[in-house]
Write a structure and sequence with these properties.
This protein is an alpha/beta fold. The chain has helices at residues 68-81, 95-107, 121-127, 165-178, 191-208, 223-232, 239-256, 262-274, 287-295, 323-333; strands at 2-6, 13-18, 35-40, 53-58, 88-93, 113-118, 135-137, 140-144, 152-156, 305-309, 316-320. Helix content is 38%, strand content 17%. The chain binds nicotinamide-adenine-dinucleotide (NAD).
């Protein structure tokens, strides 16, 4: 088992990555805790062996269940069960579970400790680390949430054995992203080493910018196109699949702006190919509609488009006026 620390002064915590390591959870249960609330989804079907008094609370699946109603329902059932301030919550699942469980934990009795046990690749390399919690509103994804760092994150790659093919792809969309954020070339790495390398990059970025005041925005590499098409609802792409196309798109935008050359564009495509990721949207998006959606992205400034783009200094947020570049780059991924 390998471990890495998320260095956040008094909020620091370890991320463990290994096989058959779910038992490690016990080590991080505070002695004060009399009860452990385990939040998960029915189909995940993973049993945590915990000696302390514990109870499983399930939430629904799909982004529509990632709602404030789910958060309130959890809090209410915790009251029913008698969960107190000195107890603890465990989020056992993908990003949706860890986001909702930690959100509920962060507001229940004004804040209960939480341990994240991600069971998807995306959760291990991204969602479970960094303390962002969230729920959707009908108006958009993750519009409400808190910053609430977990006490520990335990990534047992054995839990991924039951992960459907499509969820692997979603995870690899994020893994591909880290190739451009300073990770070593992970092609040829074992699964554990791949997760570790991504965790290393994510923990470094989170430690530099816990509350996303600056650097942390680079974790959105490839996400601007992804968020735009997710808003369209018509696209049959899962988030990680959309991120993969978004990474290719961002490379094209950077190329048309003269920030990177053809070789670097080819490298982007090589990485996406390596992980078997899709390179095109699969259906057309009207360019003017795309521009409108890009302009509404939360990174955008009034009158400007903002994309996270590759360049000589690495990946960084870049703001610009010229929508023509964005339209031109779109041709490659349509
Ligand atoms: N907080 C953050 O920093 C952050 C970062 C990235 C993404 N996210 C959030 O994460 C969510 C996406 O997470 P995700 O990709 O893990 O999806 P998910 O949590 O929705 O899980 C995808 C599906 O896989 C199932 N599943 C989970 N583990 C399984 C297992 N071991 N075996 C079989 N099935 C399993 C789930 O039940 C679900 O049906 C989004 O809501 C996104 O907003 C948060």
């Amino acid at each position: 088992m390998k471990a890495i620390k998320v260095d956040l002064a008094e909020r620091s915590y370890p991320v463990l990555v290994g096989e058959n390591c779910l038992g490690e959870v016990e080590r991080y249960l505070p002695s004060s805790a009399k009860r452990v609330a385990i939040v998960t989804q029915e189909q995940i079907g993973i049993d945590l062996q915990i000696e302390k008094n514990h109870k499983v609370f399930t939430i629904g699946t799909g982004e529509t269940s990632k709602s404030i109603d789910s958060v309130i329902a959890l809090c209410r059932s915790w009251v029913d069960w008698g969960l107190t301030r000195s107890d603890i919550v465990i989020g056992l699942g993908g990003g949706m579970v860890t986001d909702i469980a930690a959100f509920a934990a962060s507001i229940y009795h004004r804040g209960l400790e939480v341990i994240n046990v991600p069971t998807t690749l995306l959760g291990m390399v991204d969602a479970a680390i960094g303390g962002k919690t969230g729920a959707n509103l009908p108006e958009g994804k993750n519009l409400i949430g808190t910053f609430w760092q977990p006490k520990a994150v335990i990534c047992d790659v054995d839990t991924l054995q039951t992960l459907p093919e499509r969820e692997w792809k979603c995870g690899y969309g994020e893994v591909a992203k880290y190739h451009f954020l300073g990770a070593d070339d992970m092609r040829g790495f074992s699964l554990i080493d791949t997760v570790m390398e991504c965790v290393k990059v994510k923990t470094r970025i989170v430690a530099e910018d816990e509350r996303e005041a600056g650097t942390r925005a680079i974790l959105n590499y490839g996400h601007t196109l992804a968020h735009a098409i997710e808003l369209e609802n018509g696209f049959a792409l899962a988030h990680g699949e959309a991120v993969a196309v978004g990474i290719r798109y961002a490379a094209q935008v950077a190329f048309h702006m003269g920030r990177i050359g053809e070789e670097r564009v080819a490298y982007h495509e090589e990485i996406l190919n390596h992980y078997g990721l899709q390179m095109k949207l699969g259906e057309r998006i009207d360019p003017q509609r795309a521009l409108l959606l890009f302009s509404r992205d939360k990174k955008s400034k009034p009158g400007l488009f903002t994309f996270v783009l590759d360049g000589d200094l690495g990946v960084e947020p870049v703001s610009f006026y010229d929508g023509n570049i964005l339209v031109k780059a779109l041709e490659v991924v349509q």
